[in-house]
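Shift notes (night). Ran DNA-binding protein while the centrifuge was going.
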Amino acid sequence: MKKTDAWLVFNERHVLHGFGKRSHKQAIAKAQAEWDAYQLRFDAEVNTMDMKAVEAEVKALNRGDHSID
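Came back to this:
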């Protein structure tokens, strides 16, 4: 731990003292909740992009343009 503190000081970083206000269990729960929220946003974004691609293909087929892959 002393080497880590020395490295932080050397690199002009602040060294935190004490144990903090959150437990490891709380930190893991928070990280999991944030990850779950990110996954929902990402899935919605991907679904929107996929739907736009499908709509573009349908429009192209309706126009008789078969060049879209």
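Helices lie at 2-10, 24-63. The mean pLDDT is 86.
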